[in-house]
Amino acid sequence: MTTLTVSRKRYLPILATLVMLVGAFGFGSARYDGFADSQVVLNLLIDNAFLLVVAAGMTFVILSGGIDLSVGSVVALSTLVSAKLLGHGWPAPVVILVVLVIGASLGLGMGAVIHFFELQPFVVTLAGMFLARGLCYTISVESISITNPFFTYVAQTPISLPGGTHVSIGVVIALVVVAVGVYVLHYTRFGRTVYAVGGSEQSAMLMGLPVGRTKIQIYAVSGFCSALGGLLLAFYTLSGNPLHAIGMELDAIAAVVIGGTVLTGGSGYLLGTVLGVTVLGVIQTLITFDGTLSSWWTRIVIGALLFLFIVLQRLVTRRTR
Amino acid sequence: MPAEILRMTGIRKEFAGVVALDDVDFRLFPGEVHALMGENGAGKSTLIKVLTGVHGVDAGTVLFAGEPVSFAGPAAAQRGGVSTVYQEVNLCPNLSVAENILLGREPRRFGRIHWSALRRRAVELLARLEVSLDVSAPLGQQSIAVQQLVAIARALDVDARVLVLDEPTSSLDPGEVERLLGVMRSLRAQGMAILFVSHFIDQVLAIADRMTVLRNGKLVGEYTDITARELVAKMIGKDLPVLEGLRGEVRHGEGTLMQASDLGRKGSVAPFSLEISRGSVLGLAGLLGSGRTELARLLFGADHADSGEVRIDDTPVALRSPRVAVSKGIAFCSENRKTEGLIQDLTVRENIILAMQAARGWTRPLSRRRQDEIVARSIELLDIRPADPEARAGDLSGGNQQKVLLARWLITEPKLLILDEPTRGIDVGAKAEIQRLVAELTADGMAVVFISAELEEVLRVSDKVAVLRDRHVVAQLANDSLTPDDIMATIADGGER
Fold first, then answer.
1. Which chain B residues touch A if contact means CB-CB below 8 Å?
2. Residue spans of chain B under pLDDT 70
3. CB neighbours of A293 closer than 8 A, spacing ≥ 6?
4. What is the ipTM score, two decimals?
5. Which UniProt keywords apply (chain A) (predicted)?
6. Using CA atoms, how far apart are residues B199 and B221, in angstroms rounded to an integer?
7. Equal CATH topology for B6-236 and B256-493
């Protein structure tokens, strides 16, 4: 009986997100014609596939009690590197590989600095954020369009679903990332160590877990996910632009927190992050459908939601204590 | 007798010129419980840390199963067969019991964690300790006692040949201690070599086959048959100070200072009424989890009461926050000195000054000279060692940390001092000093609320004892010739006598 209530409490933040998602969606479909159309729902995934991938990486970082502010810049850098190299005639698979390696290495580097010099992730990834964003401008100060046939193919080929609807290849990639992420977090030692480090780094160390290695790997995962998110954004926009994804790290953090992951680490689920990204998407869609509201209302609503969630988390953790 | 599993010879360790261990020998045989005894700062923890590879040695050798070893750290020591369970439970409260036992060596199948095997294995390991509980529940939901057993179960899973238990009983109530000693006996029977560190002389005498006593970093000797009185004398290097007869007659105090009527908080403590008199000590007795700390937190405003009222000097007071309580002259020494009281990275001086500075407000800083004066006086009064105001608080031994915390509140000259487990995890000598200090403070008119899991101690210092059971105050007894058995009986019958 007690265990039932305990586990229920653990899922409470996620349940709250779900309730809100259903509520927002119900509101939209009651208010606007065509809101509940299944393609509208799928578009929501199509438009946010890259954010989902980035937020999945961010979930690893936040679960371990860290933060990664560099993701938006790494996304932008990835789009630019892709566009530039493709412009030079490099084959697409090589470009993709290079981009992923750059992203993962940046994350690896930041993780190593955080671990070996015992620095706060906030400051280190802030430095990484400036670094990556600055690198973007050395590549190009303006948008470079992508004409590579493979990239345009991925961008424009819809995957048909029953009922005459479709999703993009980017959505499939994002969902695969989520599936792999869930598996890693729940079925591998690395994943469980992420939770342990987030619960108590000191204890994890005394329990003989590879804390340092895990922390470095976590930032590498986040860097990799940012690079992959950048590729998805490059598919989606068919361009590389130093102005891409400005402030996206904050969207990713917001999605993770709204998805029920506690910012201090140790508690949360990747599937919650999926819900969090979806909530952000629904809000955008609502505002688009309304048509009279400025797009900045998205930010206002996200701000209000964040407040609501951190308060909710506090209430839940206080009661379980 | 089987060959020794562990032999440490001529161990020497210095920290920044201070000798922590000097030519210490220690040996351990399979199938025995060997107690390591000594006052705070005697070098027990350092010796354990040398053994488990936290510190390197400056001189001396460690032989494990006949081979010289030098572990790179606790993890390496654990792999090598030396497992340690620390006083503070070092596990992850956010993970399940099962994971905490097996984290880092989960059973796997096809490269993925085999969850059902993991839970099964955890249940088996706990069963060896005669514990049965829902291993999927988060560890944070369990009592400290259960967490301690989980930590031991974790230590057992590796092929441990030496189990180091560093103050495992200091947070446990008598029933739980018995259970733990039982577990130790059965492990001993299975051939485990157990290094046991405890401040509880009676526990040590009850279970240890052999005792090694350290004093000031030096070896005093190894003993197999020794009385409690001799043991204490070896530890402190002189004859036992007379702890008995610390207090004379029951004092009824000099008028009521604080009066709580029907004070309570749902899910924390049932409504109770108490009177606290100036110049007297009110002891709170009860098992772990009976609501002792919760009651104290209500009196300090750290938790909000949802019923009843508090009067101080016959004036109703709303204790909305600790800040209000402090302004009314109430001070609270938390039981959790690591996480709730002392700031490890600040110096002794900064820690002591903290509460006084807060009471003055940050706009009126204490001059450095005044700080130095106050701190020097506290260090002398409480005999804090090392007597260095600029030492990092986290580097002090447990007993001295407790004294720093006490000093912090004493310099604010409170009218009511609430001490929650002030002597937990500290040695006999320091314990006696703190008890004597409590007696002195009340002689000067201060009121003290004294919380301790040790009934003897509560009875030694208190004038009146409030007995708690299951979050109810079941009895309030004047302490004239009360015995621990009386209190146990009161707890057992719930005060209905």
1. 74-75, 78-79, 86, 90-95, 99-100, 103-104, 106, 108, 111-113, 115, 134, 136-138, 140-141, 154
2. 1, 40, 157-158, 238-253, 289, 336-340, 494-497
3. A287
4. 0.83
5. Cell membrane, Membrane, Transmembrane, Transmembrane helix
6. 17
7. yes
| Domain range summary for chain A, segments of one domain joined by + | 13-320
The fold for domain B256-493 equals Rossmann fold (3.40.50)
Domain positions in chain B: 6-236, 256-493
User: Which residue type, as a one-letter code, is found at position B407?
Assistant: A
Partners of B163 in the β-ladder = B83, B194
Instruction: Tell me which CATH code domain B6-236 carries.
Output: 3.40.50.300
Specify whether the CB–CB gap between A45 and A174 falls below 8 A.
Answer: yes
What is the token pair recorded at A143?
A: 């948008």
**CA B316, B317, B318, B319 torsion: positive or negative?**
negative
Backbone phi, psi, residue B221, to 5°: 165, 175
Query: Who's near B173: CB < 8 A, 6+ residues apart?
Result: B145, B287, B288, B289, B453
A283 touches chain B (CB under 8 A): no
**How many percent of chain A have pLDDT more than 70?**
95
Q: What is the pLDDT of residues B155-186, one digit of tens each?
A: 886 678 899 998 887 777 777 888 888 888 98
pLDDT at A105 over 90: yes
- Written out in words, the top-level CATH class of the domain with range A13-320 is mainly alpha
- The SS3 of residue A184 is helix
Q: Is A9 on the interface with B (CB under 8 A)?
A: no
Residue with tokens 């409504």: B271
- A202 contact B CB<8A: yes
At A122 the pLDDT is 95
